[in-house]
Amino acid sequence: MKRKLSLCIALIGNSKVIILDEPTSGMDPYSMRSTWQLIKKIKKGRIILLTTHSKDEVNVLGDRIAIMANGHLRCCGSSLYLKHKYGVGYTLTMVKAAHGVSVAANIVHRHVSTATCLSDVGTEISFRLPLTSSSSFENMFREIDSCIRRPHLSSEKCHSSYSEGNFGIESYGISVTTLEEVFLRVSGQNIDENDKSVLVIHVRFDTLRSN
């Protein structure tokens, strides 16, 4: 209740600049989402500086996101910018038959030669695909789909040397880098004072302080 009261006090004055320090920490899911909706509703025409450890909160509220680690501001930008700059790429996960690992690997590496296998546990195998490889996805997905949907397709059609009727792939899914992965990667890097993106951020903050 004290946290909700503090939030109300911060908003009641119709201030143009609002600073919120983990405003939803300790709230139940319903109250948290209600607070998000309130902040989204009143943020127009205001500058709201909000700190949080919640990646979901960042995704919902963050127009520009800054990540701090070890007392240093490491990066700042939109969610899309951070995912593109610090992201590790796409994750392709495939559910395979008992002996389908070679089938999955053959298809993936034929279309994305720089793909790396992240894990191969049980019937699930995952690959890391670089962000620059997205132009190859259409043909790769088309081949995977044809092998899944037409189990009696000839091996020549699927470009793989495995027995007819057993292509080894049952389903698949792909996801882009998450903010959680970006945070872990950024916070684990050594600080590079020559990094232009970091220097630009420092200049902008210095300019704001001088005014």
TrEMBL record:
SUPFAM superfamilies: P-loop containing nucleoside triphosphate hydrolases. It comes from the Eukaryota. One of its GO terms (cellular component) is membrane. GO terms for molecular function: ABC-type transporter activity; lipid transporter activity. PANTHER family: ABC TRANSPORTER A FAMILY MEMBER 1, ATP-BINDING CASSETTE TRANSPORTER SUBFAMILY A ABCA. This is ABC transporter A family member 1-like. The gene is LOC120110109.
